[in-house]
């Protein structure tokens, strides 16, 4: 039985240029997974960009050393296929009967096809989009799961114009673009990947808002969250919120604790707003007061 909560998939990743891999995503995640950093596969930087992976494996020069960045081919000259890459990893997870699993991508640039144990899922395009896929029904019974992600660069990566793009003689702008432009256009899995184990009811997108009164001498915290019931029966659950303030070191003082009983219909998603949570200390600018920090935990 898996432990409820989130686990990062941040190690053990491999990567390979798509044009050098003859297998399909279904084959990579069933019968023919890569066995290690053997050509064309290499150790991958996740979270990170394709260029970061190439630099790590010394496939291209270090762009931060001298003028070696000029030795790296720009995507406008290489074509999108040059920076289209497979990323592959494995993870262990065995669920109990009432548990569910989400596969989460906090950011992929720009588009991706996800394969898990032979099943294909296509992610919507966009650099800053979050993606959460429920994969409960496609996990392997033995607990070992194979994940492959084919990441594509932006559809229209653009090109550095020979005359630059700013005013004057353009020389400064040409230098800046050639020195610091992202030659792969930041293609890659550039933010965290995780799996989340939940019970029948899942908490989605908690939202915290502060409101101020009496000329900013008092502040209250308001919390709203969505609850999704993935079961086939009415879920009567206890929704808990805890607000704690950080003291010195790792010590926290619980300032507020509240439990609400909520019923969620089968297969439904509802929005729930807690009653006014607590008095909150204001965050003061440097030199004018204390910067109060709070840890807010919402569980179901």
Topology:
Blueprint: E1 5-8, E2 14-17, H1 25-28, E3 42-43, H2 50-56, H3 75-78, E4 85-92, E5 100-105, E6 111-116, E7 119-123, E8 131-134, E9 144-152, H4 171-180, E10 193-198, E11 201-213, E12 218-229, E13 235-246, E14 252-264, E15 269-273, E16 294-299
Antiparallel strand pairs: 1-10, 2-3, 2-4, 4-9, 5-8, 5-10, 6-7, 6-9, 11-12, 12-15, 13-14, 13-16
Pfam family, one: Glyco_hydro_2_N2
GO molecular function, one term: hydrolase activity, hydrolyzing O-glycosyl compounds
Domain Beta-mannosidase-like galactose-binding: 39-155
Separation of the first and last Cα atoms: 18 Å
Give the overall silhouette.
globular
Q: CATH architecture of the largest domain, please?
A: Sandwich
Please identify the top-level CATH class of the largest domain: Mainly Beta
Under CATH, the homologous superfamily of the largest domain reads: Galactose-binding domain-like
Domain Beta-mannosidase-like galactose-binding: 39-155
GO molecular function: hydrolase activity, hydrolyzing O-glycosyl compounds
Keywords: Glycosidase, Hydrolase
Protein name: Beta-mannosidase-like galactose-binding domain-containing protein
């Amino acid at each position: 039985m898996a432990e409820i909560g989130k686990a990062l998939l941040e190690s053990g990743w491999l990567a390979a240029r798509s044009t050098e891999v003859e297998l399909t995503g279904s084959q990579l995640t069933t019968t023919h997974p890569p066995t290690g950093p053997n050509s064309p596969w290499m150790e991958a930087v996740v979270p990170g960009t394709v260029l970061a992976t190439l630099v790590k494996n010394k496939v291209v020069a270090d762009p931060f050393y001298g003028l070696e960045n000029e030795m790296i081919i720009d995507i406008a000259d290489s074509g999108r296929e040059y920076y289209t890459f497979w990323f592959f990893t494995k993870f262990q997870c065995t669920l109990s009967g009432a548990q569910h699993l989400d596969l989460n991508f906090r950011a992929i640039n720009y588009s991706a096809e996800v394969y898990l144990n032979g099943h294909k899922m296509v992610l919507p395009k966009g650099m800053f989009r979050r993606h959460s896929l429920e994969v409960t029904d496609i996990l392997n019974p033995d607990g070992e799961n194979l994940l492959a992600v084919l990441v594509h660069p932006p559809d229209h990566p653009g090109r550095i114009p020979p005359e630059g793009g700013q005013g004057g003689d353009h020389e400064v702008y040409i230098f800046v673009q050639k020195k610091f432009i992202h030659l792969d256009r930041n293609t890659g899995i550039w933010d965290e990947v995780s799996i989340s184990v939940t019970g029948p009811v899942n908490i989605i997108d908690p939202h915290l808002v502060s409101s101020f009164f009496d000329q900013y001498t008092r502040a209250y915290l308001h919390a709203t969250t969505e609850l999704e019931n993935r079961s086939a029966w009415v879920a009567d659950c206890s929704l808990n919120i805890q607000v704690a303030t950080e003291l010195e070191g790792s010590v926290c003082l619980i300032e507020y604790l509240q439990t609400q009983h909520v019923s969620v219909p089968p297969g439904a998603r509802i929005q729930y707003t807690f009653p006014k949570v607590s008095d909150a200390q204001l965050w003061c600018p440097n030199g004018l007061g204390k910067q109060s920090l709070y840890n807010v935990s919402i569980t179901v």
